């Protein structure tokens, strides 16, 4: 009888798939999240491509749903805790799945969910097989990736004569990236990375060793009681990000069920970013319902070093540098000047549907941290050592999942995050998140679900809802209210803020998908155009409307377009407006060794406050999210081709063209032209 039901579901879902789009909304939601991260991180794009590498590896070695653990399902970063628990309960009750489309019978699962994961999972009867270390060492995939990019126009930093004694870029304008990686079915991987940023020297001057940044890692998974063993560079993710979260993590967005942090505590690190990782050793042991992790790290950290000339005080560091750039004399002087020792661990236990974890991390530095004596820095990190400690939990009851983390520093400042995910009906999901983080709570290398980029000085409450009234329609909305009890940079008083979003997604067929989004947020900032003695802090409202659609013209061609408008401080003294419009053509021929896409875009804004962002397709394991302000055009051409069975090549050419501008950028990045062109080339060799 179960087989009859399963195959009936199979034909029903297949019919539904023919009538539905293959859920590109999940892709567009991820793109929006990445755009939000870039905007919140001061327009700096993340160089952590581990998520893209993981999903590519899952495509090649899919997870077996019948033998997958809760941890493996969490690593997909697609399923909610309620969906994962419902799947586990379903298998415990009825046994292994017969077909992937039987997932339709699991409570909380629908066609959209199945489409999100179908490329990364399989359903079969093969039991989990322990693979010997010897086989893991020789039966995997070896790849070598090389990437070169360069802005073709020469900026001011490369034109300054070194003899003039001014600040200038000491190296060449090329950015180079090399990565060798070995991976055996996500059970064993190791590799090495070498990277040079544009403007950094190469085999000369301060970089006689060649590349500016080197990284190596060895990572073993699922070897008996050893769940994870990390040597070299790795990341640590604990709790809900109050204590430590180094991997890519999303915040507010249309997917309201993505508010909870989910990932293994130890993860291998092999990306180009030079900040968010540990260097040392980490070990996770797991047996039955318990799991324990210990790790230790020692590495050099970039910092702004200050020499104290008095006889009674000691040298100190005024700030830790996070750019990773070593192009000028001052940036080179900051490289690795601070020494950082970090160690900590986690112990967790699973009692039926209740997970409880204890987390701790301690930092020790060679030089004490001492920020500038500004009022907003009163509670900033200081001294040679500090620690973070927390307890986190997760509990699933029927269609509800409760989670949270309570943390404290060694100075007894506290932080709390608590959330609830609820599937109120088959077509309705809700989420609620409350956070209360004291003004003195500080942590390093963290990414909690907060409005601030780091979890500190914030109280807030978010509520979100997703409604699927029909198979073709989806409505996502959230409201977030928050308060900053203490001063912040460029904000000379305690303030409040709010953020609202509503998005309608329409997918009437597998050929067409469209969404329309309205977002409104209000934050306060110092605004003092008249230069009065006390700078007033005033609310700055910002509204944004966007509509985007994708239409599959044929099996090979897809057309995609976005129109977006922004109103900053509408009817206020600092009022600015902005507009953006682009069109994409994507070419993906079936069973042909090449593909590509092009974009033509127009943008027009009154200034930086009305800037806009747009995700761009890029070479493999990379993406671009440029910002747009001023008036002009941008276009790019992206093409890739299999040169042989073992070698694949990518090339991307992009260009800004500004109207009524004679220069682009400022200071050392100033270009005395109205255009800026970048070329990016990449080769992937399968050894």
Layout of helices and strands:
Blueprint: H1 2-19, H2 25-40, H3 50-60, E1 63-64, H4 70-74, H5 81-94, H6 111-117, E2 121-122, H7 133-138, E3 141-151, E4 174-184, E5 188-196, E6 213-223, E7 226-238, E8 244-245, E9 266-268, E10 278-287, E11 290-301, E12 303-306, E13 316-320, H8 329-334, E14 338-351, E15 354-369, E16 383-397, E17 400-409, E18 414-425, E19 428-437, E20 458-467, E21 473-484, E22 495-509, E23 512-526, E24 537-552, E25 557-568, E26 576-587, E27 594-605, E28 612-613, E29 627-628, E30 631-642, E31 647-658, E32 675-686
Parallel strand pairs: 1-2
Antiparallel strand pairs: 3-4, 3-32, 4-5, 5-6, 6-7, 7-8, 7-9, 7-10, 10-11, 11-14, 12-13, 14-15, 15-16, 16-17, 17-18, 18-19, 19-20, 20-21, 21-22, 22-23, 23-24, 24-25, 25-26, 26-27, 27-30, 28-29, 30-31, 31-32
Descriptors:
687 residues; mainly beta; 24-stranded antiparallel beta barrel; two-stranded parallel sheet; 8 helices; disordered N terminus
């Amino acid at each position: 009888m179960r087989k009859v039901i399963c195959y009936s579901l199979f034909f029903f879902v297949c019919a539904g798939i023919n009538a539905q789009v293959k859920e590109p909304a999940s892709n567009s939601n991820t793109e929006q999240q990445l755009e939000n991260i870039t905007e919140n991180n001061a327009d700096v794009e993340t160089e952590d491509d581990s998520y893209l590498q993981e999903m590519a590896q899952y495509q090649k070695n899919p997870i077996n749903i019948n033998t997958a653990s809760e941890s493996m399902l969490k690593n997909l970063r697609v399923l909610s805790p309620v969906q994962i628990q419902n799947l586990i309960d379903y298998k415990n009750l009825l046994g292994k799945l017969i077909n992937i489309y039987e997932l339709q019978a699991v409570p909380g699962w629908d066609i959209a969910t199945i489409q999100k994961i179908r490329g990364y999972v399989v359903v079969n009867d093969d039991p989990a097989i322990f693979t010997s270390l010897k086989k893991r060492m020789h039966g995997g995939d070896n790849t070598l990736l090389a990437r070169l990019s360069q802005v073709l126009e020469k900026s001011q930093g490369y034109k300054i004569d070194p003899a003039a004694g001014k600040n200038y870029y000491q190296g060449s304008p090329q950015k180079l990236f090399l990565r060798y990686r070995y991976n055996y079915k996500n059970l064993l991987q190791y590799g090495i990375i070498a990277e040079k940023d544009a403007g950094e020297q190469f085999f000369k001057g301060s970089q006689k060793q060649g590349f500016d940044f080197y990284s190596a890692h060895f990572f073993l998974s699922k070897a008996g009681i050893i769940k994870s063993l990390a040597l070299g560079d790795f990341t640590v993710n604990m709790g809900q990000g109050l204590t430590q979260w180094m991997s890519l993590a999303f915040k507010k967005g249309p997917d309201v069920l993505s508010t909870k942090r989910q990932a293994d505590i130890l993860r291998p690190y092999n990306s180009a970013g030079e900040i968010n990782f540990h260097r040392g050793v980490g070990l996770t042991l797991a047996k039955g319902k318990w799991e324990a992790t210990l790790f230790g790290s020692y590495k050099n950290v970039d910092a702004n070093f200050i020499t104290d000339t008095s006889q009674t005080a000691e040298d100190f560091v005024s700030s830790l540098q996070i750019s990773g750039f070593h192009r000028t004399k001052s940036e080179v002087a900051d490289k690795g000047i601070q020494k950082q020792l970090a160690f900590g661990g986690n112990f967790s236990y699973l009692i039926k549907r209740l997970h409880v974890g204890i987390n701790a991390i301690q930092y020790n530095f060679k030089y004490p941290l001492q920020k500038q004596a500004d009022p907003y820095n009163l509670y900033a990190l200081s001294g040679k050592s500090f620690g973070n400690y927390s307890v986190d939990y997760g509990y699933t009851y029927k269609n509800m999942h409760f989670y949270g983390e309570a943390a404290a520093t060694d100075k007894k400042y506290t932080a709390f995050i608590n959330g609830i995910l609820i599937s109120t009906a088959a077509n309705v999901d809700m989420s609620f998140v409350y956070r209360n983080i004291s003004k003195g709570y500080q942590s390093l290398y963290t990414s909690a679900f907060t409005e601030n980029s780091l979890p500190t000085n914030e109280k807030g409450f978010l509520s979100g809802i997703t409604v699927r009234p029909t198979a073709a329609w989806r409505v996502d909305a959230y409201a977030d209210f928050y308060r900053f009890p203490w001063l912040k940079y460029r904000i000379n008083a305690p303030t409040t803020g709010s953020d609202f979003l509503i998005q309608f997604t329409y997918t009437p067929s597998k050929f067409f998908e469209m969404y329309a989004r309205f977002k409104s947020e209000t934050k306060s900032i110092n605004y003092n155009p008249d230069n009065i003695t006390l700078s007033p802090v005033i609310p700055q409202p910002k509204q944004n409307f966007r509509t985007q659609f994708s239409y599959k013209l044929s099996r090979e061609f897809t057309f995609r377009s976005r129109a977006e408008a922004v109103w900053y401080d509408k009817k206020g003294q600092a009022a600015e407006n902005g507009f953006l419009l682009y069109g994409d053509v994507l070419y993906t021929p079936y069973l042909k060794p090449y593909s590509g896409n092009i974009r033509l875009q127009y943008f027009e804004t009154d200034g930086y406050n009305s800037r806009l962002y747009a995700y761009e397709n890029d070479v493999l394991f990379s993406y671009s999210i440029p910002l747009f302000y001023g008036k002009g055009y941008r276009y790019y051409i992206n093409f890739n081709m299999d040169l042989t069975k073992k070698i694949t090549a990518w090339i991307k050419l992009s260009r800004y063209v500004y109207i009524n501008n004679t220069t682009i950028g400022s200071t050392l990045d100033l270009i005395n032209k109205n255009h800026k062109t970048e070329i990016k080339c990449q080769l992937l060799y399968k050894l």
